[in-house]
Amino acid sequence: MLPCACWLQLILIMLSSVLWTLGENCPATCLCPDPHTVDCSGRGLTRLPDEIPLDVRRLLLADNWIPRIPSDFLVLYSDLVYLDLRNNSLSHIEPGTLSTSSRLVFLDLGSNNLTEIPKGTFGESRSLIKLRLGNNPYLSMVSEEAFLGLTSLRELELERNALSTLKVGALSQLPSLRVVRLEGNPWVCNCNFANLFAWLMENSHKLPNGVEGMECSLPMDGRRVSLAQLSKDSFRECQATLTLTDLLIIIFSGISVSVVAIMTSFFLASTVHCFQRWSKGTKGDEEESEE
Known about the structure:
The structure is a single chain. By secondary structure, this protein is α/β, with parallel strands linked by helices. Helix content is 29%, strand content 13%. The strands form three sheets. An eight-stranded mixed sheet has the order 1-2-3-4-5-7-9-10, with no helix packed on it. A three-stranded mixed sheet has the order 11-12-13, with no helix packed on it. Strands 6-8 form a two-stranded parallel sheet. Helix 2 (169-172) links the parallel strand 9 (155-157) and strand 10. The termini are far apart. Residues 185-239 form the LRRCT domain. It holds the Pfam family LRRNT.
């Protein structure tokens, strides 16, 4: 019985020591269920907590009031693989903030106040597999190069935002993409949507609910229709529609041709004028020679 009691006492001492260590390294008001997890969800935080352990791998900060992430926040947390910032007050992510997260696999920025996802937001987080950006009611712009370098990204969530259009390049540059959620956005079925529609039809297997789960509004009367009711012929007129780039090229070409024509006319006129003066001078010399 005595050896058993000794072993039990030793185990209790070791357990209490571990718990004391966890409690010592855990930020105030947060929980640390294991040595590499910090859970600060629903704590009413208005800024990131202090004294987060440097070896944290899972950082849970959902359901708070955090308005921003310092651009150098993740520099020290090189082991971080899971970051949950869902349901906060983030309005933007400074470029470069996430570029140092070389091991980040999961990132949740859903249910915030993001307005745009510009180029360089995620750097080249090549380990990122799942990215949640849904339920940002003011998110109306995603750069065509917003996800450049995310070569391992498999799941992208952009549902229920304020997107009316999206460049195809933002999606086609994701070679590992398996699932993309785009439903619940105020898509507009105009010529700017034509290329995205073609991509969605070709990649409908990547949409959880297929194209049937997506709607867009008709530019004429604003009526919402399911993408399943449309076809490539619905955008047939867009093939003959000139883009802004096309118009600029035409205008520039026209100006260039006009300038060349004016310069050519001036050169020819000058040549003719010089020839006429030379001819008159030659005739005058001949008449003087005859006299």
